[in-house]
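**User:** My hope is that you can spare some time for a protein that puzzles me. I have put the entry right below:
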Amino acid sequence: MPRDLPLSNGTLLVAFDLEYHVRDVYFPHVGMENHAVGHPFRVGVWVDGRFGWLDGSWALERRYADPTLATSVTAASEPLGVALQFTDAVDFYENVLVRRIQVTNRAPTAREIRVFLHHDFRLKESEVGDTALFSPEVAAVLHYKDDRYFLMNCLVGGDAGVRHYACGQKEVGGAEGTWRDAEDGALSGNPIAQGSVDSTIGVSLTVDAGATGEFWYWMAAGRDFREVATIDAVVRDKSPAELLRRTQNYWRLWVTREGGDFADLPAEIVDRHRQSQLIIRSQIDGEGAVLAANDSDIIRFNRDTYSYAWPRDGALASVALLRAGHTVAAERFLEFCARVISPEGFLRHKYNPDGTLASSWHGYVRDGKPVLPIQEDETALAVWALGEYFDRTHRVETIGPFYRPLVTRPGDFLAKYVDERSGLPLPSYDLWEERWGVHLFTVAAVVAGLRAAARLAAAFGEDERAARYRGSADRMLGAMRTVMWSERDGRFLRMVTPGPAGHQGDPTIDASVFGVVEFGVLPADDPQVIATMQNVEERLRVRTDVGGLARYENDTYQQVEKQDTARVPGNPWFVCTLWLARYHLMRAQIADELTRGLDLIRWAARHALPSGAMAEQIHPFTGEPLSVSPLTWSQAAFVTAVEEYLERMRRLTTCPACGQARPAGPAAA
């Protein structure tokens, strides 16, 4: 089940499923140590002798309280005559999830309504050796193992402290867990359990007919009892309402655009733009790692997750936020890359949020010979991102510490990791992590990375080095135009493979060829680009009511339609569809021509979840999320496309000489 409404402060991340169960709880890194591992933390209601767990039978409306990283979720049960309103946030400073739960009695008489909150922790990603207990010292329920502690407490009518609770075993000797204990409306009060355990707390409210009652709940995370007890004391002292208020204000301030100029963009797109920035921010660890996605359900596909830091995803997300006016995330990402880059100047496949090397399927040997198990575009894009940061901020003192680790070291590597016969980069893995060869997207990224390294070297007075990097980039661009261009097909090839008889081309249409435009290697109106992108749009368009653009022809990853691949070449991807949007925006010569790109941005906004969360891909017939959700890259692609639209609109409607508005007409050269 896709994840939705992630809440985070860079240390504690909580994610919900589509039925608004807490499913993933990460601490002390975003994306590392999932203490729920996808198991649901249930919410249940008992009233008039009947019980119901919050599930798909309830009428649910899931959104953020715009524009913040706080939720606004309504869940209503007609059989129970009860509606719940959740406003939840992870405090921007303290490691605590705060929940305001409003309970509406839809019956014609006053009733006692009991609400139960269940916790199914697997601390440090294992149910072995956990302890759940009620602590009279803090009047709260705790789960702990080693140096991981979680404390759950509540506030009812001004009275803080858990009054109804049960701690017990689960999945042992036929025991399902304490959530079953709640279904008769009363909890056992068992004060402690060890091993594979869970816990449930209960709250009782008497609510008049048609009226609404309210209580507060919080879950603090820490490394020992004193840490979570201190957070608990802060919540009690300041009040959970104050923590919620200040967190909402913090994120409103963070996401508010300076000047507030969104041109003529529809409100829906402006909302999605803000939501996307916030969702990206929720996926960034406090130490700089940008996580691809934190949706543990994907474990079922390959016994692994997307909770890793790919340097490519981080570079693209950081630059998206940079374009939207946020510099800190980019700075922390660059600091992360500077810490993990190899002494030889390359970045590896992916990393854990703490900077250690993550799992990989890229081998160190091919055809009996040692190879570098890298995606070279990832190294290049870190340098490109640094160049974008410098061009937009000119913060010399910030750039200085990055000069050796992220300019000269990778610059030298990119300039040397070249096939001397062709001038193209040596083979590496592609951005889709499926093929070994020389990929157009990678070549474009390397050219852009070398150009950025040249600009930075020149800025720091190393003219000889700058000239060397520029020369390498120019030779590589020339080789790309010849070796990777197919006269027969009239377009660029997505990949070539070197061999004794030269380079063998892969004619598969692939949306990633947009990389030559994305990184400014070639202009959008270059004849070779136009011919290539015409093929992409025609051959990868999904011809269903859902629409969108597929990744490449006959894409088998999470494939839905396996027969009619001419109609459905693959599932629609947000990233690929938004690439096409940006291509049309870049081609526009008058303001009216921005419509084609804007229509594709509208498509992405329309197919996001109501919260604004965008999956990796969607079902070609139903539009339902597929693979992980949200995917940070999808949200970044949306932010970048909107920024592209705004920049193009300004250029096409503003006189470059005087800065005054001008009527729509041919754009200045």
